[in-house]
Amino acid sequence: MLLSASEWAIVALSLKVSLVAMAATLPVAYTLAWLLARKRFPGILLLDALVHLPLVVPPVVTGWLLLILFGRNGPVGSFLEDHLGIVLVFRWTGAALAAAVMALPLMVRAIRLSIENVDHRLEEAARTLGARPLHAFLTVTLPLSVPGILAGCVLGFARSIGEFGATITFASNIPGETRTLPLAIYTGLQMPGGEVMVTRLALISVGLSIAALVSSEWLVRRSGAKLGQGGGHVL
Amino acid sequence: MSSEPFFELKLARRIGETQIELNAVSHAPLTALVGPSGAGKTTTLNCIAGLLKPERGRIVVGGRVLFDSALKIDLPPEKRRVGYVFQQGRLFPHLNVAANLAYGEKLHGAEERWITQGEVVDFLGIGHLLERMPVTLSGGEARRVAIGRALLSAPKFLLMDEPLTSLDAARGEEILRVVERIRDELALPVLYVSHDMAEVERLTDSVIRLEA
Q: What sign does the dihedral A70-A74-A78-A80 (CA atoms) show?
């Protein structure tokens, strides 16, 4: 199936938005996952709930909250515009922010699970061998949580590609700027004679999601096999 | 015999229902720590290694003060220069044997190291395992690699937590011979935890007892 130039532009925009959202979210998601997995502090339940909020509230509400915070008159939005010259609302970067916020809980969950699966006693062993805490983290915890990072990225990517409600609320539906695949499909449904385009775009988005899930499964299995998980004796 | 004891262990620590009170001094380079399970043997080792903090006490090994609650000394584990051979080897599953051995070695300068990887490999007979991943090792092989990894981290003393656990008699005998050679050839203070008195009597007559 060959894509027309305008369809390519939509796919490319969607990929750009999702990949930027992933790259920006990963460090945040990993830090949050590590805190939730390894630390006990007052307010941890509140943090956990906040992280999961985008998973449970209607995406439209998440988009509206982003508008309040990151809009040109919002506290964060006006600060970014005045001091850094960054405007997010109605821009593709805003679509990436919306996608990032929606993907965050999925990424945190996947990464947190894999950090919790890293035996804390291996970190202790590294300490007795002379590693300072940061070195122990970088050489033991981080590499052993790679399967969760991969799984989290793919889940988050798939979620970003499919993001609709928060994006259209916060970044609007601007062709070439914020009209990602789901928004283009929605727009096509509103147009007379848009069925062909809708069908083609829908097939593309299904294909992208399947490719993401299959590659995640493959990557996780490969890294799992390397560590010999699911077999062998206790070490 | 010098007046400086190898181990000066005074510590108090509660863990769960068990209150550990230890007050012992040993002048023997290989000292055994014995007691029934649940008496706090591993907890004691964790306190000496710096992985757990005693409520109060003083821990001195080979003249180095590792912990002293009165003097507010509490070295972090990476500064204690301890070679800790854990009950389960705790080899790093994502690194092969050679990289496991090198892990602690790389974290110490040449002036601190007193044994090379080649010497350790010969000492323990693990040359044929270097490329293997930990998951593929047998219990006895993994135990020897864990000992090698500890020796290469430039330790000033060893803690060995029941190193014969879950090994069959023949593999256990191999490890026991390694411990004897560490005692006789390496001049390294060793605190050896066991609940098997026959094993302990063969190694040393310096015994610290923990009561349940």
A: negative
